[in-house]
């Protein structure tokens, strides 16, 4: 069996490797989170976040991302200690190479017995700054953003 080799598409994910300070009012009461992202041989990328939830309580998150050449899609997952749902992603990078849009289905925040389509984006503004946002699909097909986090590379 031949081992997979990083594709050109993996270079977007490689930019995430390192330690980051995260500011997201929706995720905390103003206290910064941290995230450390590492590469598994340039094929998979694992980002572990940690911080305090609003109202107190430690939380940990794990984001996995890779590129599947057979699907011609970015793929991944997200789990967090604050919920029981695993978010499974497929997506693509914008033509300008700055934005990875990831699509998933999960519990509807307003009606937990229903599901909803979500889009999460990782947007690089430069090599040391990125934005992560989450949006829910509205009945008219548009996306309504409900969360945004700003990442600054440490060191």
TrEMBL record:
It holds the Pfam family DUF1579. It comes from the Bacteria. InterPro entries: DUF1579 (IPR011473). This is DUF1579 domain-containing protein. The lineage of its organism: Bacteria, Pseudomonadati, Pseudomonadota, Alphaproteobacteria, Hyphomicrobiales.
């Amino acid at each position: 069996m031949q081992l997979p080799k990083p594709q050109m598409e993996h270079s977007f994910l490689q930019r995430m490797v390192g330690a980051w300070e995260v500011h997201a009012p929706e995720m905390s009461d103003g206290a910064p989170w941290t995230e450390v992202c590492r590469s598994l041989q340039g094929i998979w990328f694992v980002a572990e976040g940690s911080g305090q939830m609003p109202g107190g309580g430690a939380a940990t998150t794990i984001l996995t991302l890779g590129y599947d050449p057979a699907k011609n899609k970015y793929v991944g997952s997200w789990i967090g200690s604050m919920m029981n749902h695993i978010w499974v992603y497929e997506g693509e990078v914008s033509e300008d190479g700055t934005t990875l849009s990831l699509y998933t289905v999960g519990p509807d925040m307003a009606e937990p017995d229903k599901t909803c389509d979500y889009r999460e984006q990782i947007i690089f503004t430069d090599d040391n700054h990125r934005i992560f946002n989450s949006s829910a699909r509205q009945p008219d097909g548009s996306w309504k953003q409900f969360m945004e986090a700003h990442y600054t590379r440490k060191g």
